[in-house]
Amino acid sequence: MSFPIERPRRLRLNPGIRSLVRETSLVPSNLILPLFVIHGSGKKEPILSMPDVFRYSVDMLEPVVKDALSGGVRSVMLFGIPETKDEEATQALNPEGPVPKAVRFLKERFPDLVVMTDVCIDEYTSHGHCGFVKGEKIDNDSTLDCLAKMALLHARSGADVVAPSDMMDGRVGAIRTLLDGEGFTDTLILSYAVKYASAFYGPFRDAMMSGPQFGDRSTYQMDPANRVEALREARLDREEGADILMVKPALPYLDILRDLRETVDLPLCAYQVSGEYAALMAAGKNGWLDTERASLESLISIRRAGASMIITYFATRIAHLMAGS
Ligand code: PBG
Questions:
Q1: Mean pLDDT for the chain overall
Q2: Which CATH number among 1.10.3720.10, 3.20.20.70, 3.40.190.10, 3.30.300.210 corresponds to the domain 26-323?
Q3: In terms of Cα–Cα distance, which of 271, 266, 260, 320 is closest to 292?
């Protein structure tokens, strides 16, 4: 049976039919809005390489979150920029730091909002690495205690989900053990299980005023050439107690997302990172492509590859676009 009997175009005849046979859905509640939070008050600072994305002081977050919620986005991911940085990431454990404050502020005003927090020390260290430095090396085991305490602080402040993004070995287990020991058995861990050493994080480092002051992240983040290793990272984080696994970046790693979808029985998250956002925005500003259509297509592709949820700087904009508002 083939042409003229088989005519795939019949299933594309009109919008109604196309919507009946559409295989993948994308709704605003799939999206997670990242928020960059700074100390101080009354601040809304633009980020050069990320048009329409800002750093906010805690008191400025309310309208931003209201806007996201009104489009149907239900979750945010908080990143903190401390006032001071040092070798030991002291400010990562400050209950009055931007993230714990933002969590309390948001949970008070929006109890149903899913508040997630990034757990990583790179924004808090003067050297800009995601682990403590010993000599020229990034020391794995001495970092775990700080990460677990940071996660506990966020949980105590009211975070629903803590999301370790450091790529130290064993950190999911260390976080789960401390959370459970302190009675936070219901706090979820969204693990950046499969995080590649990617050039696509460039604009984020601009946004966070972070980034390694020497060397790079390739002794802890994954080699972009590796695929089997992703399965191992995913398995380990699952065994250590992760509730949700993340693949990051998203679009250049759709094959990895698909591999995980076929092998792991946990929900998957993908992070459409700053460089993916910046590229789509820049091309749009030049009139080289339609940013809204291209970002929708990227997000649908990420869902098709296997992600339940997507962290994206387009969250609010796309949510309103989908709602027709
Ligand atoms: C590290 C962290 C990074 C991102 C999220 N968490 C940067 C890095 O690993 O260098 C990148 C997010 C993005 O590019 O949008 N705490």
A1: 97
A2: 3.20.20.70
A3: 320
